[in-house]
Amino acid sequence: MQRIVEQPVMARVLERRDEAADLRTLWLERDMAFQPGQFVMVWIPELDEKPYTISALRPGRIALTVRRRGVFSSRLSDLRPGESVGLRGPYGKGYAIKPRGVLVAGGCGLAVLAPLKDALPDAPLIFGARTRGELLFLDRFPDMLLCTDDGSAGQRGFPTDLLRPRLERGEVGVVYTCGPEVMMKAVFDLCERHGVECQAALERYMKCGFGLCAQCACGDQRVCLDGPVFDSAALRRMEEFGHWARLKSGRRVTLNEYGNWRSCRP
Amino acid sequence: MADLTTTLCGIRMANPLVLASGVLGTTRAILTRAARAGAGAVTMKSISLEPRDGHPNPTILTFEAGVINAVGYSNPGVEEALAEFADLGDVPSPVIASVVGRNAEEFARVAERMARLPVAAIELPLSCPHTPGYGTLAGQSTPEATREITRAVRAVTAKPIFVKVSPNAQALGEIAAAAEQAGASAITAVNSMGPGMVINIEARRPVLAFKMGGVTGAALRPVALRCVYDIYRTVRIPVIGTGGVATGRHAIEMLMAGATAVGVGSAVAGGGVEVFARIAAEMAEWMDRNGVARVEELIGAAHR
Questions:
Q1: Which fold has domain B6-303?
Q2: Any A CB within 8 A of B29 CB
Q3: CATH-assigned architecture of domain A9-91
């Protein structure tokens, strides 16, 4: 029988960098075998523990990119170099790399796709945000194809508008996506119409992170262990995808209500 | 090939393995998956009268000999549960509803409504060690409270009632006997033990947000086995032996101690949902090799 010890190990903050008004990257002292799409559970002692992606990896250090939203993310953002945070993981299943991939990110979903872009520097990366001030990693990925809801940067419109012509030209083998779930649902639906595989990283409220409690259930899948990245075959069977998510109590609500609770867009 | 089918309080099961409450039991779809993966019966995560968020994270950790948790009965409440579990037609195994309350009246109110669902039985955990207002922390783990709560629930449903007991209880035999006298149909032995604690020595703080939590898995198994052994000698109703079972040998050990069915929970952490099929196959293989045709030949074998 497999022996596992799932407990946080403390990691020191080495440096921090502001990405946008409410967005900050923390570099932590840690080596990690991490596949893009996976996540870690981040523990602030005596406060809480929440899942985050690793947004960048270098020898001996890993990055968390944190949007300031509530008490936890504010405390995390405010950690100073020399202070520590607990990490366990990485957990879950990442993206499965296939030929001719296109990356489609929305909002802070780019933090999830960023290490995949590092691994696939030639793959096109479409990045959409509501407005110019919410764009991030502009220096890191100068070749990004940008769009904003309000037209304040890049093309005015949605990431699907930039993805559609590429699908129509038949130049896309697989689409990797992460962002608000309504956007991922639109990307998935578009891929379905063109018969192209879509891999989407879902987000649900989590507890254990390793498949025991099923707090993060979406359909009969556990987002923490069976996902968070699901392929088209799995997404097709998942009736909750694009429609429903569960609050901390397990109560099923619309993505809109879930998004309000998480104080981020659905 | 050995016959693994068994009957628990009139409930026919394809094998004696029961998905324990608190593991995977959050939704109808996940229960269906566990049943399809080979669980002979499946138990919902416990349902209370009102929705509960439970304790902050971290709530569930593992250590070198098992799992420690302080989830704190997070659940969507009985109203939502009635909708979530209204149709259990897809679930290929019997479903057990786990019900909690702060007092006998609340247990009865929730149980009466949950019993309207197509569930095979109602389980009453009177023994959670880490949720203020419930279980051990509310004094439910005594012969008197067990009698009162079991009676109250017996008055509102004719379905089988499983009373889940704590391995910590000094008066375990008296508690099991009180449950039996008050109308319980079976004893689930046992809930998590402790509470225990894990400290991160760099952070110099307990890791669980609630600081302490119930201990399950390998560390609990010999304790659970002794509890089952004792309860089997005390009462005539069947026992569901739960605690650290991860292999076919462990399950057979539980049967020999006196269990009619065997709970599996923490083993999902190491073995995945597939653990049920593997344990069942290991049981059948052992029974074949040792000339045991049926599960009931093993129940209480260590006492004869």
A1: TIM Barrel (3.20.20)
A2: yes
A3: Beta Barrel (2.40)
